[in-house]
Amino acid sequence: MKKNCNLRPLLLLLLPLMLLSCHREMVVNPIESTKLLNGTWKITKALRNGTDLTNRFDFSGFKIAFQDSTYTLDSLVPFPVSENGAFHLDDPKYPFKLFLKAGTSEYKELNMEYPISGGVRNIIISFSPGCSSNTYQYTLQKVN
C-alpha cells in the first residue's frame, strides 16, 4: 500500500507534463506539379496486342511534337490521328487520358501513363485504331 502512495504524487506530476507536451503538427500536402508534354517525343517501344513490334518496324522516323495545346506529327505509323491538330489532358496534374483532335474530326481518347523509368520521363499511350481486336501501346521518350 505504501508503494502506491509513493507513486501517486509522481503520476499526478507527470500527467500534466504529458498533456502539455502534446501539440498539433501542421500537415502540409505535397504540391503536385502540372505535367507538361511540351517538346518532341519519339517511340522507343511499340506493342500490338502485347507483341513487341519495336524491331519489326522502323519507328525512327516518327516524332510527335507537343507545344501548348497543339501537336504536329512527323512520319506516319499506326496512330489514332493522321494529321496535325489540338490536344488536351483529362487532368493536368494526374493525367490518365490524352485527347487528340485532327482538323475538324472528333477528339480521339487515348489511355495514358506518365512514368519515370531509368531516370527518364516516358509517356505510354494505349489505343485501338478502329478494330477492337487490335490494341497498340507506344512508349514515348522526349528527344533532347
UniProtKB/TrEMBL annotation:
Region forming the signal peptide: 1-24
Alphabetic keyword roster: Signal
Pfam families documented for this protein: DUF5004 (PF16395)
Recorded superkingdom: Bacteria
InterPro entries from the UniProt entry: DUF5004
Name listed for the protein in its UniProt record: DUF5004 domain-containing protein
Organism, as annotated: Arachidicoccus ginsenosidivorans
